[in-house]
Amino acid sequence: MAGKRQEAAGSVWRAPVLFAALALLFVLEGTVSNSLFSGNWNTSLGILNMGLISAIMALGVNMQWGYAGLFNTGVVGFVALGGLAPALIAMPSVPGAWEAGMPRLFAGLAIGLLTVAAAIWTWGRMSRSRARPWAVLALLVVGLAIYRYVLDPAVAAIESNNPSGAGHIGGLGLPVLLAWPVGALFAAGAAWIVAKTALGLRSDYLAIATLGIGEIIVAILKNEDWLARGVKNVVGIPRPVPYEIELQADPAFVERAAGWGMDVTTASTIWVKVLYAGLFAAVLVALIVLAELALRSPWGRMMRAIRDNETAAGAMGKNVTGRHLQIFILGAAVIGLAGAMMITLDGQMTPTTYNPLRYTFLIWVMVIVGGSGNNWGAVLGGMLIWYLWIKVEPWGGALMQLVTSGMAEGWLKSHLLNSAAHMRLLTMGLILLLVLRFAPRGLLPER
Fold first, then answer.
1. In angstroms, what is the C-alpha Rg of the chain?
2. Model's pTM, two decimal places?
3. Partners of 170 in the beta sheet?
4. Residue 103 CB burial class (10 angstroms; 0-12, 13-18, ≥19)
């Protein structure tokens, strides 16, 4: 009994101690200047902001995997869909896009949706006979031909409208904060389509399907210039916080910066990052509260029961497929929300930056290291792994400089110094191996 009480006491203090240690890393990054830390608050807050966004992404993946055991390897696709929202909601409309072909574009998209809906309806209404697949196939082929006939000229006209500066449909010119829930809706809609087709597959086949669908989404964003300029990028996405140059021109802020003992340029960049951190932290706290309430409710206990034994849960009358669909959509919505927040922070939509290493593999490392099934573990893993992802590269360079300081010039020294660029991947793999060996349930395991 004494051993159990000690273990319970240790588990109670584990989370506060780990989060305090994480906070100390950010404080040291901002205050101490040596070979390990930059001593720059701009750097520390920059890492913190992306760490908060990464924690939200990890929280979304944890909902899918930790709550329901759904292995989603297409995280990058939902991040990209969320990132599309600021470009379509907050950017101003493109002059001439409507006249160039917007009505025909909307008509083509409507035909495509009606074709898919008609195919689904036909499949459901026709009896199980040999004619059913042929009828659906014929409907899809005819619908696709009409869809391309209507859509392609509209796309060509829009993309040829000022292609060097625009060539896309633009946005609605609304406040950028409205794009965050829209990004969640974009990802949730795609998740519904994916889940309706792939959730019936076994876990390994589900992973393969989501991986392919994620890459398809990214490929569409790269190649469909009419949507968000493709690889030409959408730049100048509005901010929810002031611009640094605006603060530097504000006499009240100049006086405040002098009171802080900073030059106005440094103070403005730090203040903008602090405002972003406040917004991101507020969203993360709200999500954590909602996720914890849901996890401790009867719904949360049902989800974990389905995760642990689908057969037993189904025998007790639980709708396993329906609950899987529900949690897959919720997790994807959280990931899409984080994607919209990230694009707002960056100020530009760059589809070429969406790669599975950063937005799928690294997010999974965050969830595994933090502790799958534990919301606080996902947050801890997200912020810790992102901090290490950023800091390991300069640390690796300093380590290699130290190791080779006494070596003669030659190919070996040059090779070791050049290998420092690979320290990120080596360190992530090493961390993952150590956690799986000594803490297989993560730093903050599920209770």
1. 25
2. 0.92
3. 93
4. exposed
Amino acid occupying residue 57:
M
| C-alpha atoms less than 13 angstroms from C-alpha of 358 in its C-beta half-sphere | 13
Of the pLDDT bands very low, low, confident and very high (cuts 50, 70, 90), residue 167 is confident
Interhelix angle 41-62/362-370, rounded to 10 degrees, is 80
- Separation between Cα atoms, residue 110 and residue 104, nearest integer Å: 10
Average pLDDT over residues 340-368: 93
Distance CA 433, CA 358 (A): 18
Provide the sign of the torsion angle of the four alpha carbons 188, 191, 196, 202, taken in this order.
Answer: negative
The pLDDT assigned to 331 comes to 95
Give start and end residues of each alpha helix (H) in 34-130.
41-62, 68, 75-89, 97-125
Q: Which residues pair with 420 in a beta bridge?
A: none
How far is Cα 266 from Cα 257, in angstroms, rounded to an integer? 9
> Token pair 């025909």 is at which residue?
104
Three-state secondary structure readout of 284-332: HHHHHHHHHHHHCCHHHHHHHHHHHCHHHHHHCCCCHHHHHHHHHHHHH
**Amino acid letter for position 53:** I
Neighbours of 215 (CB within 10 A): 18
Binning pLDDT at 50, 70 and 90, where does residue 274 land? very high
d(CA 77, CA 82): 9
Q: Are 441 and 371 in contact (CB under 8 A)?
A: yes
Query: Contact, 306 vs 199, CB < 8 A?
Result: no
Each residue of 377-407: pLDDT tens digit?
A: 999 999 999 999 999 888 888 888 877 877 7
Nearest to 335 by CA among 190, 234, 156, 443: 190
Q: Which single residue is written with the structure tokens 């210039």? A: 225
136: its two tokens? 């659906």
Question: In whole numbers, what is the pLDDT of the chain averaged over residues?
Answer: 89
How many angstroms from the chain centroid is the CA of residue 274? Answer: 21
Q: Is the pLDDT assigned to residue 84 strictly greater than 70?
A: yes
Give dist(CA 235, CA 216) in Å, integer: 23
Distances (CA, A) of 103 to 108, 111, 155, 158: 9, 12, 11, 11
- Return the exposure string of 181-198: e unless at least 16 CB atoms fall within 10 Å of the residue's CB, then b: ebbbbbbbebbeebbeeb
